[in-house]
Amino acid sequence: xxxxxxxxxxxxxxxxxxxxxxxxxxxxxxxxxxxxxxxxxxxxxxxxxxxxxxxxxxxxxxxxxxxxxxxxxxxxxxxxxxxxxxxxxxxxxxxxxxxxxxxxxxxxxxxxxxxxxxxxxxxxxxxxxxxxxxxxxxxxxxxxxxxxxxxxxxxxxxxxxxxxxxxxxxxxxxxxxxxxxxxxxxxxxxxxxxxxxxxxxxxxxxxxxxxxxxxxxxxxxxxxxxxxxxxxxxxxxxxxxxxxxxxxxxxxxxxxxxxxxxxxxxxxxxxxxxxxxxxxxxxxxxxxxxxxxxxxxxxxxxxxxxxxxxxxxxxxxxxx
Amino acid sequence: xxxxxxxxxxxxxxxxxxxxxxxxxxxxxxxxxxxxxxxxxxxxxxxxxxxxxxxxxxxxxxxxxxxxxxxxxxxxxxxxxxxxxxxxxxxxxxxxxxxxxxxxxxxxxxxxxxxxxxxxxxxxxxxxxxxxxxxxxxxxxxxxxxxxxxxxxxxxxxxxxxxxxxxxxxxxxxxxxxxxxxxxxxxxxxxxxxxxxxxxxxxxxxxxxxxxxxxxxxxxxxxxxxxxxxxxxxxxxxxxxxxxxxxxxxxxxxxxxxxxxxxxxxxxxxxxxxxxxxxxxxxxxxxxxxxxxxxxxxxxxxxxxxxxxxxxxxxxxxxxxxxxxxxxxxxxxxxxxxxxxxxxxxxx
Lengths: 320, 348
Description:
- The complex is a heterodimer of chains A (320) and B (348).
- With 320 residues, chain A is mainly alpha-helical.
- Chain A contains twelve helices and two strands.
- Chain B is mainly α and 348 residues long.
């Protein structure tokens, strides 16, 4: 039994570390899609966040010292939010196909990032950062038996922030007037417009929030997992976050739960060889688990997952 | 301005805008855009070797573009071309390596295996869409990652723990000494003819067959097609299967022509995603896809010359391609702009 606990002590912290970036990004997706704008560009926005986070960290480590990773996350958030404006303008004002625009954002994100890295460093990846996101022991909670060492010992600060953001997002979306407007715009924009809600303004805000959160997710991933930036730094995390959002049924807490579960699958995949009863399971099954589960969830085998009604439709005033 | 003219102008303007913004990016980053585009041009058309390599690069782009375009015509967005291409690549590489047959059987068999693998990968989202109304975009994205990880695992099994499969037998190869010598020993292979033949097949299905008529009807208006007695479900599944088969053949180009094997991959090939751009630019018509693929294939291959000749990172071309997709996506606003210009002229 103690062997099993040891495995959990080992694997749960890794799972949480993998899940945190997914939580940020998936909640970004919740904001955008709840307002009716499909955001497949999460991957590209995460790439942008990871790139900006790492480069800022490398350049300003002398200025900000211990605070560098946090400032980097903030800057990554701002840059990705601005970058997501492209998607907002295309899909809200220019009535572009939101999926195509999202694909363009993905391609553009990685292209700009790699172009800039080559320009700045003359090679395919950046140097390694010195100041990483710090780990904390949470006072009192870490002393709880079993759960303490699993969840509250040497957690990344960013993981705590991720959980806080998930709860905050739940509060905003379900308990504030803005959240009500956000949801109404995504379900029935014409009705919302009749009630005097500025549909397009709400959608712009939502897409920008999603960009900012995806940027944070990317910066957190890069500054906890890889510590540098290259072409494979963000490799599907954005799509996995999209999957988490759907698996979590477009609900912030649900998305967090799904992200934690996907993080667990990833942690198992990388460490399965060290776990006695997992050795015989080919790691490929764990790698594809999040994606397969999303398909199963969408197919309605785990309760029907229905997106917002007006998802993907540009709102054209005056048309029925 | 006629609608037809506008339909042609929108992609042309998107390409010009993409190249222009690309030039601005180069300027801002301190590079010389004119030198950059000259290097790009020379990389594409500089000598017969470059031309051979460019045509070689275009073949998988044609097939990826056909795959996206074919699904589009039935109103489906197949983002899964990338995954279908990867499983097709593996299937072709495996059949090409593992069997010993005369060429006349082996090569078609390997191509067929690739098409079948891609078709199966398209069948799953097709079935889910037809029976359970699951949106194909998300399913195909997820299928891409499943394909990537699964094929990586399969390669390790086939290569007994190694990271690439053995080379295919000569009897399964698309390589051509004749084409290669013609283009100064480039890796140009017969794949381009396979691709062009598939362009014809797509045209034939869509324009000359009952199946194509039904597929297009479903794409135009599902309900009308239903009332006219067509099976919407069957057509959705068929569209995804055929689309997947095109994509799988795109993988065969890489397996049987360019590389002759398959290595494990950390990420995607990108060909499938560029296929979206190819199809959009070609307005989802077979001939349009050939033009779109020629443009993107040329850009992709020609970019290799940019770091050496003009000292510009190769990724500038990826930026330009992404921008072109973005501008094509914004076609509505370009259309509005063109119509306004047209009206102003009429008023005068």
